[in-house]
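subagent[fold] <- orchestrator: predict structure for attached chain, return tokens only, no commentary.
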Amino acid sequence: MTLTRTVLVPSNEAEWLDFRTKDITSTEAAALFGAGSYIKTPYELYHRKTGAVADDFTGSDRTRWGNRLEAPIAYGIAEDLGLIVEPFKTYIRIEEARMGASFDFRIVGLAEGYSGDETYRDLFREHGHGIMEVKNVDGLQFRRAWLDDGETIEAPLHIEFQVQHQLEVADLNWSIIAPLVGGNTPRPIFRLRDRATGEALRAKAAELWAQIAAGTPPAPDYSKDGKTIAKVYVENDGSAVDLSDNPRVSALCRAYKKAAAEESDAKKKKDAAKAELLTILKAAKSVTAVGFKISAGTNKASFRAYVREGYEKITITLTEIPSTQIEAEVPAYRNVRISEVAA
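subagent[fold] -> orchestrator:
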């Protein structure tokens, strides 16, 4: 199959965002397989692409600092590996698949005077230009979400999909995932293009666009799509219906009530365990126990104000709760966090 790849250079952020709405992008790719991070599932992606659910992500300190530190991380890791990189600020689209991708840096050459390990330079010699995907990762997140046994590193699945999507769209054959961990520890790994994954990505993208054209959403994953479903069905028409002849409704109501009771009981047990721990810890801030570490710092009193979005409160019946401004004094409290440690 002949694929048409169009290279676009957005003149501003608004134009770049407009490009992205027309395609499945690399940061959305994992959602096609139900493995997304921000957008998690095909059901959620469908409703975002149709506009039924707005993209309300406005950035965070993590993403802002990631953007600010992207270039220093890229140039620093490239220097460590004996490579030359340059900004790769184009948007590339596969027209037939409606897949698109943005990039961080492009690997374009070999640095002179380098005397270190040749692994990554050999990849350049064999495959030519490649992609560098930069990640600014704090140490805790790296330990939680990345797999590192000292020899092999695996990125979170959504990043692995992101990189394969980028390689498919750009028609390049290798990439470096370049995380800087904890501000001072580079942990780069390379990935070769997996053409079977690229074909699977194109097939899944085509399937989703076909579903959008037909107006037929993918089946939801109820364990992941609860927030999206709540947004899709946020409005009610005021009607009353009798579903007494639908046994699934009764079964779900019983399951909901049972889970709510178990949740309440579990919270009581959790609160009781925390209370007893505090009587043992007393004023200590950090505690080590067999198999656990306990942090029990004090969060100082503060004032918080925020706008709570309107939503429908589910109490088996639906009650519409309007948007409202919330302001409250938050008293000081002990922030007890317990983490398991290897025995």
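orchestrator: received. Logging for downstream: The chain is about 40% helix and 30% strand. Residues 314-319 have pLDDT under 50 and may be disordered.
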